[in-house]
Design brief:
It is a single chain. The protein is of the alpha+beta class. The chain is built from 20 helices and 20 strands. The chain has four domains: 134 residues; 128 residues, no CATH class; 133 residues, no CATH class; 105 residues, no CATH class. Helix content is 49%, strand content 15%. Helix 2 runs parallel beside helix 6. The N and C termini lie far apart (71 Å). About 3% of the residues have low confidence.
């Protein structure tokens, strides 16, 4: 007894430690960014959904096995073994052990199902907080929000319950027939290839009632599935265009309605026969259902398509092709394009050129690829600096709006010389990049090089492009964690044959002052040096998850992000701006993209959010720039502390 208690307590402690190590660093990270409510909403939603799914599965299985245990005859067939004890006996697989293994198998299956289902937390929250789109589909006249938010949830629930009851049915059959099955298996093992006699398998009357009732429940869920399939026809790919075609609307909808009626009737027969089983009625109703599936769902649509639609395809399919075009434009926000006639004149004069001098001065002649190589050659300055890519922006320079190209100078610790590539240098000294290179899009020197308006270390710049905080602790190449405010100074930038050092003055990173946190992060990053280094002080902070795409994706994984965040200079500081999109693959009649995004082909997209990341402090702000988008409005309801109105964005960044 005490041994079991000790083992149970030990397992509880191990699970608790695993939860602390898994969750606590993430919570500290979210807390530092003032997004604790977002963290807890996501975590509890995942856990809550997984728990609900687990409980529903266990409840369905437990009730059916409990009923089966009560109804199963106690005088099952005798199981014989060889004189030496038999194969199963040698393994020590007694009836009690087999039952424990059976329970363990159910628990493992339930855990796997619940774990996988928990990843659908986003879909469940969207259903609960959904906002209407304000327009309807052309076939059923339902708000688009039903298809984007509700239909995926209903399909999730229907599929889950169907799988649960099918598994319950299989496990119940096994429970009723476990003695017969065990006898057959044992016979095969003992016979070693010789012929054996298979016992006659009979199912008791009470067991038949139970199994018939289970069958009725499964058929009832199939009827619900047919109802959902009617709405899923709006994503059909069988016609000439994406969405429901003539055959889908005129035949398949009718077919699914017939199958709903047949399935409901079959379910009623199953439930009635669960009181007084008449297997003949069950087999007849099953045959009718199979016949209805073959005739209405398979044969009839093919016949109509071949003999009615094909000879008159243009006339029959034209309305549905128009739906596809119209709803694709709506989904991609292409239905608000205004066509404006622009008269062309070939009488260009010098006065016209002078009149539009600002436009002429902003015509790009630099290509991003050679400019990136040029930046690397003339502005990297040291081997451990690198420019990841070139972005295009506009700035007011000398009272004129100029188009420029720019790139951040980031520090890549993997490019440190071998003798300098130590743990202290990688995590305590070489912690950040420094400054940027910026040049007009259409100017070159006599040597063919760009004219740099921001350059060198420390940065020199035009008065309108001042850079007072050039350090880059958060960027596109900041993959490793760093420790700041330690007892050793950080490398800031090279100056001739010497180096300039600094101490971090910002608010980025998580305090690592206690022994517990040092142990926690040592485990998190699998790095014992964090625990044993003597360079840490009570003020020390650890910065992790510093790369831009990983940073914003951890906070809001339900948004899709542009793959190229771009650097901007604003009021002397450096910021990253990343475009975020709300997407869906459930907009009816809208053609889906040819490429996959997050394992799906989307058919709705809005550039609804701009994300601003402070390159020095790591602060992240999500601004809603399309407040009419129903999906971002839904997420704003789910996470009221995450999104800010566009009006709250600093004026200089809005430019």
């Amino acid at each position: 007894m005490y041994k079991k208690l000790i083992i149970g307590f030990g397992l509880f402690i191990l699970i608790l430690l695993w939860l602390v190590v898994s969750i606590y660093p993430d919570w500290l990270w979210f807390k530092n960014l003032t997004f604790s409510p977002v963290f807890w909403k996501m975590l509890l939603s995942k856990f809550g959904l997984g728990l609900v799914v687990w409980l529903v599965f266990i409840l369905i299985i437990s009730i059916n096995l409990y009923v089966a245990k009560r109804l199963r005859p106690r005088n099952g067939p005798e199981i014989t073994f060889k004189a030496d004890g038999g194969y199963l006996s040698q393994l020590g697989l007694s009836g009690k052990t087999m039952n424990l293994l059976f329970i363990a198998l159910i628990l493992v299956i339930s855990f796997l199902i619940a774990s996988k289902s928990s990843y659908q937390w986003d879909m469940v929250l969207r259903y609960l907080y959904q906002q209407p789109f304000g327009n309807t589909d052309p076939i059923f006249n339902r708000d688009i929000g039903f298809y984007v938010f509700s239909l995926p949830f209903y399909v999730f629930v229907q599929n889950g319950l169907l799988i649960f009851f099918i598994l319950a049915g299989l496990l119940t059959v096994w429970w009723y027939l476990k003695d017969e099955i065990t006898q057959v298996i044992t016979g095969f093992i003992q016979a070693q290839g010789a012929p054996i006699s298979v016992p006659k398998i009979t199912i008791a009357l009470k067991a038949k009632k139970h199994l018939i009732f289970l069958g009725g429940t499964i058929v009832l869920l199939l009827a619900w599935g047919y109802d959902l399939k009617i709405y899923k026809l709006l994503y059909s790919t069988q016609g000439p265009a994406f969405g429901a075609s003539y055959t889908d609307v005129h035949i398949k909808i009718l077919a699914f309605k017939v199958l709903i009626f047949v399935s409901l009737g079959m379910a009623v027969l199953f439930f009635l026969n669960s009181f007084k089983p008449r297997m003949k009625v069950i087999w007849i109703s099953g045959g009718i259902w199979i016949g209805a599936v073959l005739l209405f769902a398979n044969i009839l649509p093919v016949v109509v398509q071949k003999f009615v639609v094909k000879p008159n395809e243009l006339a029959k399919e034209s309305p549905y092709i128009d739906y596809n075009i119209d709803y694709t434009r709506r989904a991609y926000n292409l239905n608000k394009i205004k066509e404006v006639d622009f008269p062309v004149s070939d009488k260009l004069t010098m006065e016209d050129i002078k009149k539009h001098d600002v436009t002429i001065q902003n015509i790009r002649i630099w290509d991003e690829r050679p400019l990136l190589q040029t930046y690397r050659q003339i502005q990297s300055i040291r081997l451990y600096y690198d420019f990841n890519n070139v972005d295009v922006d506009r700035y007011l320079i000398n009272k004129q709006l100029r188009q420029v190209m720019l790139s951040a100078r980031e520090l890549v610790v993997n490019q440190l010389p071998p003798q300098a590539n130590t743990w202290v240098n990688r995590h305590l000294v070489y912690t950040h990049g420094y400054g940027l290179a910026l040049s007009p899009v259409n100017e070159v020197t006599s040597e063919g090089l760009p004219i740099l308006l921001i350059k060198d270390l420390p940065p020199s710049f035009e008065p309108d492009l001042k850079v007072e905080r050039p350090e880059i602790y958060y960027g596109e190449k900041t993959d490793q964690y760093v420790l700041v405010k330690t007892k050793t100074k950080e490398f800031d930038y090279p100056k001739g044959d010497k180096n300039v050092y600094t101490i971090y003055q910002g608010r980025g990173g998580v305090h690592i002052k206690s022994f517990f946190r040092r142990l926690l992060f040592a485990i998190e990053f699998m790095d014992s040096q964090i625990l044993f280094t003597t360079y840490l002080s009570p003020e020390s902070r650890i910065m992790y998850n510093r790369r831009i795409d990983s940073r914003v994706g951890s906070i809001a994984p339900f948004l899709d992000y542009d793959g190229d965040p771009y650097l901007v200079v604003s009021e002397g500081k450096l910021y990253w701006i990343q475009d975020a999109y709300t997407t869906s693959n459930m907009y009816p009649y809208s053609r889906r993209s040819s490429k996959y995004l997050k394992n799906r082909k989307l058919n709705y997209i809005r550039n609804s959010v701009k994300v601003i990341i402070d390159a020095y402090n790591g602060d992240v702000s999500f601004y809603m720039i399309d407040e009419k988008d129903p999906i971002v409005k839904t997420y704003s309801g789910i996470f009221p502390d995450l999104f800010k109105p566009f009006d709250e964005m600093p004026a200089d960044l809005k430019k």
